[in-house]
Amino acid sequence: MKIFLLAVLSYIIGSFPTGVVIGKKFYNIDIREHSSKNMGGTNAGRVLGKKAGIIVTVIDIAKLMIPTYLARRYYGIDIAAIIGACGMVGHAYPVFAKFKGGKCVSSYMGVMLVLNPLSALIPFAIWNILKYVLNYVSLSSMIACVLSAFLFKFFSPENQIAFYVMLAAAFFVIFLHRANIKRLLNGTENKTRKKQA
Questions:
Q1: DSSP assigned state of 93
Q2: How far apart are CA 1 and CA 164, in angstroms?
Q3: Quick one: how far is CA 143 from the chain centroid?
Q4: Phi, psi of 177 (to 5 degrees)
Q5: Rounded CA gap, 159 and 157, in Å?
Q6: pLDDT the model gives residue 76
Q7: Beta strands of the chain (E only): which ranges?
Q8: Do the Cβ atoms of 60 and 102 come closer than 8 Å?
């Protein structure tokens, strides 16, 4: 399998709009018309409920594990990181959803699970703590992705190309959260827990 074709396949798989499909198919709701208008798992959870949010998140994690795994098996870990990043671009700018997609947190962790599972699982545990300590999913997610990249460097110091690709991917996640960052600075970002009256 040629690397270019695998990159295209990864983009196409990444483009699958999980949250949109589940919302329309099972709830008759387009989640892009509600709350943050994002098609990722966090917004799916807000609009469709916790169960749907978990399902969307799991699928978004799993979908990029497939091309990343194929790339790692046949071409090595550095190429796998690049192929995974192509899938992240598809998730952020999906050809099947008018190029308006998610913010790639789940996709990032799906890629990292294949590259180095500990570099995904440790940040996931920390993310769960941070989202309650900081009370912001977006901020916790950005921190978790950057932490994941540096954990990868710690656990796999020999894979320099993969590290730089995943570090760039982490900053891509931050870029996709630019509206959230603006709301964080303005004090208007959605909180994990609503303030008790």
A1: S
A2: 24
A3: 13
A4: -95, 15
A5: 6
A6: 97
A7: none
A8: yes
Measured from the Cβ of residue 81, the count of other Cβ atoms closer than 10 Å reads 27
- How many Cβ atoms sit within 10 Å of the Cβ of residue 175? 12
Tens digit of each residue's pLDDT (9 = 90 or more) over 24-78: 999 999 999 897 788 889 899 989 999 999 999 999 999 999 999 999 999 999 9
Give dist(CA 178, CA 184) in Å, integer.
10
Residue 169: how many CA atoms within 13 Å on its side-chain side? 35
Distance CA 175, CA 85 (A): 14
Residue among 23, 68, 70 nearest 165 (CA): 68
pTM, entire model? 0.92
3-state secondary structure of 192: coil
Tokens 């954990």, residue located:
151
Domain extents for the chain?
3-186
Q: Is the pLDDT of residue 98 over 70?
A: yes
Number of H helices, E strands in the chain: 10, 0
Burial class (CB in 10 A: 0-12, 13-18, 19+), 117: exposed
